[in-house]
Amino acid sequence: MATPQPPVVIGITPLTPAEVVAVARHGAPVELAPAALDRVAESRALIERLAGDPAPHYGVSTGFGALATTFIAPDRRRQLQASLIRSHAAGTGAEVEDEVVRALQVLRLQTLASGRTGVRPEVVTAYAGLLNAGIVPIVREYGSLGCSGDLAPLAHVALAAMGEGEVRVAGQAMDAAAALAAASLTPLVLAEKEGLALINGTDGMLGMLLLALADLEVLLDTADVTAALSVESQLGTDAVFAADLMALRPQIGQATSAANLRALLNQSPIVASHKGPEDGRVQDAYSLALSPQVHGAARDTVDHARQVAVRELAAVVDNPVVTVDGRVESNGNFHGAPIAYVLDFLAIAVADVASISERRTDRALDVARNRELPPFLADEAGVDSGLMIAQYAAAGIVSELKRLAVPASVDSIPSSAMQEDHVSMGWAAARKLRRAIDGLARVLAIETITGTRALDLRAPLPPGPGTGAVRDLLRAQGVAGPGHDRFVSPDIETVTGLVLNGAVRAAAFEGER
């Protein structure tokens, strides 16, 4: 059973990346700060006054987008808000993952609780209620252009809060009305401005960015572990990772990755076995020797993306917005460019880390380059194929990751009768990054399987403590070492899980200590 998570308080300070991940991925409940509900009530009073003004106010008494100049009479405004949600809930394609939807929900809740959107307090409490009841609206893959926010995904969430559409509860699909009733929640009836406030945000793409950053924190450490496995098992040198050499190029991420490699290799009897003047090689192949430079650049890219994400967590994204001094102003903060750019940047880094990993794997299987290991690490070459096709899988993934590294954020397309004539495509950038991260985990898993088998083939020399602990973890999980060919796919799936959940990283660095 999962460990109960402490509640995340909404409305005092901006959410942290860790808090969003706790709610989205680990099911942490949310609590609304009383002061936040007070702010919400104050801003709603202003919207109520504007609703009675005969002059038009965007989103309060007008239509939306290209229909912004159309005045809507007071007796039609509730219908307007409901129609907005129903028409914008136009997503199509496969269902989006639950953790993405929950991230989107909690981020929209934070904006609603800011008191800058003009919704009623009951709208805020309704969104908190959905999260705490574990009601996950069904959101579809396609529908967001990443400008005016993630309109379609957010509309599907709003539709569920209205008691319409479909949701999942504990993985079971059901009608939203039935789910709300089972949780003793009242369907929302939206008033002026509220439809816009529920859908005008970049919450989907930001949520996926935050989840990606959490994954990459694990995966980039793991990439250092897999590189150490390869360097050690291929009789590479750790001299190139020396701290004074790293200091000549003061890149922060590079120094971190090099320190990890030093820690994992400096107690290795295999590395020690060929140290000294008798080892006449000038340098190892680039994929071995230059791992810190590539992994480090990816780390620095992640740090930049995290800065953007933290700033975005402090943002209020809505249009129009209620300002601190009580004005209701249209603005363009719903454009997803800041998030879209870093999502694309991360996809480039992910592709390159996977690429260098696959090259290290390929070297380990090539008898001309692996320093006296058997071809493809096979037990009986010719009868056995060893890990030949596992490398094919890694190569195929890397090829796809290169395609996924093509930026989405430069591919604007006009919409809404040319009113919205430049969009960010941030949602699309986020979706392809999620696929890329899954691919990176699989490529690292294949290198882990390869490196640990190669370590066993260096017996009787033992590996270092950290890399040896990774080898022992795999063997304890039923992933066999050298021997005749076996069904490889289950091993790759098992180790991919160990990579993603941080078990490989934990084994390496606990073992190293």
Q: How much of the residues is beta strand, in percent?
A: 5-15%
Main sheet: strands, sense, barrel: 3 strands, antiparallel
Q: CATH top level of the largest domain?
A: Mainly Alpha
Query: What ranges have pLDDT less than 50 throughout 5 or more consecutive residues?
Result: none
Strand order of the largest sheet: 4-6-7
Query: Any idea what the radius of gyration is?
Result: 26 Å
InterPro entries: Aromatic_Lyase, Fumarase/histidase_N, HutH, L-Aspartase-like, Phe/His_NH3-lyase_AS
EC number: 4.3.1.3
Keywords: Histidine metabolism, Lyase
Subcellular location: Cytoplasm
Quick structural summary:
The chain is mostly helical.
Overview of the molecule:
By secondary structure, this protein is mostly helical. The chain folds into two domains: 193 residues, Fumarase C, Chain B, domain 1, CATH 1.10.275.10; 304 residues, Fumarase/aspartase (Central domain) (Fumarase C, Chain A, domain 2). Helix content is 55%, strand content 5%. It has 20 helices and nine strands. A three-stranded antiparallel sheet has the order 4-6-7. The model has no long low-confidence stretch (mean pLDDT 93). Pfam families: Lyase_aromatic. Keywords: Histidine metabolism, Lyase. Its EC number is 4.3.1.3.
